[in-house]
Write the structure tokens for this entry.
Amino acid sequence: MADFDAIVIGGGLVGTAVAYGIARLGKRPVLLDEGDIAHRASRGNFGLVWVQSKGFGVPEYQRWTRRSSDTWTEFSQELLEETGIGTGHERPGGVTICLSEEELDKRRRLMEQLHIEAGETNFDYEILTHAELKKMLPAIGPDVVGASYTRYDGHANPLYTMRALHAALLKHGGTYVPNARVESIQAAPNHFVINAGGRSFAAPRLVLGAGLGNKALGEMVGLNVPVRPVRGQIIVTERLQPVLPMPTLMMRQTVEGTIMIGESREESGFDDTTSPEIIHTLAQRAVKSFPFLRNVRIVRTWGALRVMAPDGLPIYEQSSEFPGAFVCTCHSGVTLAASHARYYAQYVMDGALPAELARFSTKRFDVQAAA
Ligand SMILES: Cc1cc2nc3c(=O)[nH]c(=O)nc-3n(C[C@H](O)[C@H](O)[C@H](O)COP(=O)(O)OP(=O)(O)OC[C@H]3O[C@@H](n4cnc5c(N)ncnc54)[C@H](O)[C@@H]3O)c2cc1C
């Protein structure tokens, strides 16, 4: 039996960020991961660190997302210094392109509302005309009517981010155990024992950061985590000269030069395959926005499964039945990686979640069920 300060289940972006954050505090976490057979959103996502359009009607989510985005530059720099691995993070701002007056009007109303709801946090944005956007992104086509812009948006390479987080976890003395699927948890308040991967682990803190696996794991420690898969399909082009100086919601150019085009939202259960119809729709919209793409080769497409709560918000909770057990799950694990490493890890070790995260409690599902 190996004793640790915390057991974190799930070696994707969420679990690894929390485990690294715990190790960074000078504590000893062990990170258990199922392995390559699992569905892993962290290896198939779009890589945006995105703020605009997050938190409509839920200002707490907008604030939490902004806080993470504000922390990302420092977080990325620290990972680079500690591991020599760059996350490729940039924060040049970002735009959401609109292809009709109707889309732009809807967008304008959304951004106005987000601005109002932000209150004293403030939320700066601009609605850009075609001509204004053309100055920022000269490659747009004539069908683009306008866009919304915020300076808070950016992007990163999610795979390098994962690599950096794993390396930083080990550097701080954390333990990583791959091929360790957790099937059962022996739980008592502030005492958890897990047998996985042929070994036994014990700790006073437990964090469920296992993505879609959290639903089953939550039941073992009295946590209701009703996440479901939502598929997203992505297209990747051949490498090009720099042509997109900032990400858009549906397209970004990576540091290597490829253009990523995304991303659908489909209720497809655990099916993560691609379909020609969806890829066609994504490609059509991309070519309308940026006509030069018509002559660019597609080199890859893939599908991956988002980890989605019924209301699309993160789920952060400590079990009342088994204090010391926490869940941390969300559908924007790249964007929120900095918050999970810097803040959530601290809350776990302090043994309490702050009031600012109360909106993300599992209690909201009880209210919905009762209603
Ligand atoms: C198409 C697509 C595009 C996206 N784009 C963006 C974006 O632009 N920006 C953004 O911020 N987010 C984006 N996301 C969301 C982001 O990828 C996820 O929020 C994030 O990856 C979730 O990470 P996770 O660690 O919770 O889950 P996962 O990556 O799924 O990892 C879960 C891990 O838990 C392990 N596990 C599961 N069950 C067990 C068990 N019983 N025992 C041990 N281990 C277990 C698995 O092995 C796996 O490694 C996108 C997602 C998709 C699918």
User: Anything to note?
Assistant: The longest helix spans residues 59-83. The first strand starts at residue 2 and ends at 3. The mean pLDDT is 96. The chain has three domains: 2-79+158-227+311-370, 94-150, 228-308.
